[in-house]
């Protein structure tokens, strides 16, 4: 059965995209939506095997995709993925830095390891993949970089000092890189999801999810496709004059 799901139609024919954290949830929805609209997609996950489910879903409707295993926070591995994409498709037009983890806990009980792990994946991973892609984009004088932040990076969230710090850092990183490369026709934006129904939020349980909905003016939990549609727009030529922005997709939580 086809998993085509995008509600927005843009023309990404001939574009090459890299999506990190593409095995499930938001990353999977983003990768499928980009492919559905014509992009060739490199699906990056912690292992090639875990990325294959998304690749197979894309190939099922005739899209083109490849799976890559990578620890996004390790420079050599990120560079290796980008080099492999360049060898296969000769360019990188779109980069979506989506890979992220949580290691929640109150600050007094937070371990160095739980702090460092989240920084390594969420913030350093965004840095190393962006750095690896920026030169190929500069050479083509074209690029769309979309970083997945969070409403936790806009206002903080108790029990998530590490996660919130990384997502706030992603926003600062986005603003800076946007200013550095706007003249090279490279846009850099961030999407800040609110409470989205994913495997990460499912473990919280029905009671917490019900309480979260009460804080959302739209009165519903978001869907990964809500984020994918925002990314799809930012990846398109229609968003060529938008850069250095943070777009909350949160049902009004931060209104």
Question: What features would you describe in this structure?
Answer:
This protein is α/β, with parallel strands linked by helices and 255 residues long. It is 47% helix and 15% strand. It is built from 9 helices and 7 strands, in the order βαβαβαβαβααβαααβ. It has helices at residues 25-36, 48-60, 75-89, 112-140, 152-155, 161-181, 199-202, 206-214, 224-235, and strands spanning 16-20, 40-45, 65-69, 94-97, 143-148, 186-193, 246-249. The protein has a 7-stranded parallel β-sheet with strand order 3-2-1-4-5-6-7, with helices on both faces. The longest helix is centred in the middle third of the chain and has 29 residues, at 112-140. The protein starts with 15 loop residues before the first strand and ends in a 6-residue tail after the last strand. The mean pLDDT is 94.
